[in-house]
Every structure is written in C-alpha cells, then in structure tokens.
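Hi all, a correction to my earlier message: I attached the wrong file for Thioredoxin family protein. Here's the right sequence:
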Amino acid sequence: MKRFALTVAAALMAMPVWAVEIGDDGLHKEPFFHDTFKDMREDLAEANAEGKRLVLFFEQRGCIYCKKMHEEVFSDPDLNAFIDENFFAVQLNLHGDTEVIDFDGEALSEKDMARKWRVMFTPNIMFMPEEVPEGLSAAEAAVVVMPGAFGKGTTNDMFTWVLEKRYELDNGEDFQRYHARRISERANGSTE
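and the right structure:
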C-alpha cells in the first residue's frame, strides 16, 4: 500500500502544472479563444469594438505541434494574458464542418475554407488587419501568417510585432530582423 501511495504521489508530481483543456472536437482550448458564429466580418467588428486585433487559429485533432504550442508556449501565463488582452482569437478546425463566412461573403465549411485560404498544416495563425477591403478573402487580407509551431520567444515576438503594426513601418526591420534584435536583447537582459 505504501509503495502504491508513493507511486501515485510521484505520478502527480510529474504532471504538468498547466492542464490543457481538450474540447469535444479534439482541439485544445485556451481562455483567449472566442466562441463565435465564425462570420469573419462580425468577428472583425467585435474585435475592433473591444480594441483588439482579430487572429485566426487553424488547428486539428491529434496535431502534435498544436499540443506542443498549447503545453509549452500558451501555458506561459504572461503570454496567455498578453494574447487575451490584445487579440480576439477565433479557433478553426482544419477538418471541421462548421460554416465559416469569409470577408468576401463566401460561406464554406471550415475544411473547405482552409483549402480556399491555402491552409495545409497546423497550427496556422492568421493575423487580420483592423479593416478588410470589400471583396478580399481572409487569406488575401492577412497582414501575416504564422505557419507551424514556434517557441515562446518567437510567438511572443510575432504577436508583439503585429500589435505594434511593425509590418506597416518602412524602417527596414521586417519580422526576421525584429525577432533577431529581440533575441539579442533578451540574451543581454535589455528587453523593453
């Protein structure tokens, strides 16, 4: 009995502190995800009304890279709070059947919208501008797409780069240069 109790105690101590919730659709759920009707114009309007940026997360059931992002990146309380405070995040299922209405008015299932927007891998994070011109799709309007799983530093830098609208600046510092500078600053302990 004593051995069993020690085994249970050791197992509990080995469990990760951050428990990632899995929804009925098999996708990881974060507190910063908004459950919407997936009408992109409505979601953009709601994001703007809240003073946030619209960001779309494509994921799929069983995605080991999505799991890695949720367990190792979004588990950071500061990053999670930063995203929640500044972004209106909508999760989409790469193989889902829920209807999505694109900015151009076309209504398709999540899986067909993924094909239209050329989303092939997960996770895939699409950052939207505050205004989308009439007739453009989300893929055409996105200010940047973050395809794949990245570490905390890269993810934080991408969200910050978008929030600061650095993609609009003509200062020669694209994301790669911005990220390299931020890595150097973190290494030197001189982050902003």
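Sorry for the mix-up. Residues 19-150 form a domain with the Glutaredoxin fold (CATH 3.40.30.10).
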